[in-house]
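hey so i finally got around to running the thing on that chain from the lab meeting. sorry it took forever, my laptop kept dying and i had to restart like 3 times. anyway pasting the input first so we r on the same page abt which one it is
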Amino acid sequence: MPLHLLLFYMENLKTYSGESLEGNFYAIGLNYKKADAEIRGHFSINDIAKEKILLQAKADGIPSLTVISTCNRTELYGFAQHPYQLIKLLCEHTNGTVEEFEKVAYIYKNHDAVSHLFTVGTGLDSQILGDFEIISQLRNAFRESKKHDIINPFMERLANAVIQASKRIKNETGISSGATSVSFAAVQYIMARVPYISEKNILLFGTGKIGRNTCENLIKHTKNDHITLINRTKEKAEKVAGKFNLIVKDYADIQSEIAQADVLIVATGAQQPTISKELLYLKRPLLILDLSIPKNVSEDVLQNDLVTLVHMDHLAAVTDQTLEQRAAQLPLAKKIITEIEKEFNQWADNRKFAPTIKALKNKLAEIKAGEIDYQRKKIEGFNEEQAEIISDRLIQKITTHFANHLKGEEGSAESIELIRRVFQLETA
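ok and heres what got predicted. didnt touch it at all, straight out
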């Protein structure tokens, strides 16, 4: 590992007095902004790897963790003593290296990590603005963490807050209006560059979520009835085809089907390329769109002069009036996020010092009880009822002052520790 990176991690390992035993909340990862499709492919995480990461994190004593891996991003959200614990998990269970990570990745901590998750979960950080598919992926990721019992109250409440923000933005703004997604952008690209598209032969290889969405957009916008589906598991393709009355071919027929196609759309979930030059026996031009992460079309197909290859990163540049309309809704969307994020941060900050305030209240109540008992024995006609009322009011005022002080402090951990030492408090 480069020395400057190691020093960076060691610097972040320093914790202040009184910091939570759970560590800090981190968001670490990479996305389409700095990492191209090839690098994102190195860090892509399938369902088996996700489970392994969660199990390994639990074994390593990480209290809470959620894993997100989509075509546009791979991210880990969790609690750790420093971020290298999460980076190590990511690199151990993917084909990515720490050196690659350092070049393209980001690390957010505590409030910044919370803000990042709100931006991601509400579609504002999506490659195509307002693409709300990410929220269902986040919901599933948090559900997986809960299933493996590796999610704490902080992250569970945060997940609910992000889902709430996403719902409000979808319902109260126009940021999700119009049809714009990777699949729609693919169809737009085809329609702009392939004349007489309704008469062309289109082959769709892969019927996962992106494949299904692309299929729906193709039918809706191209009016083409020459669409053929191929999937490694034929039953899945038949299920999609039955909905739209399309043709399904066996995976064994893919070479002959490619030879007859004008447009090939690849949306498989394989970790290695599924389409290479060896499959291409072409007699006419072929436009290939690779909508997969990692890339599922080998670059060697470009050795065939009849091939035009486009990857999904190029499709993100497709802009239209819909995107302009969505961008106009950003201020309203950000206002909703600010409101819900502020509520969450207040809850989270209060949660940090609530045990200390409760312990302080109990300590003052003990002092009160001892003092009232002493005065009752010492003073004849001592009014215990009045003493109780006055004492309780004083305790309430004192603890409220402390609570307000902690709420208003950025670095309240030091103050919490000072209060604990001064009053010799024990908190769970």
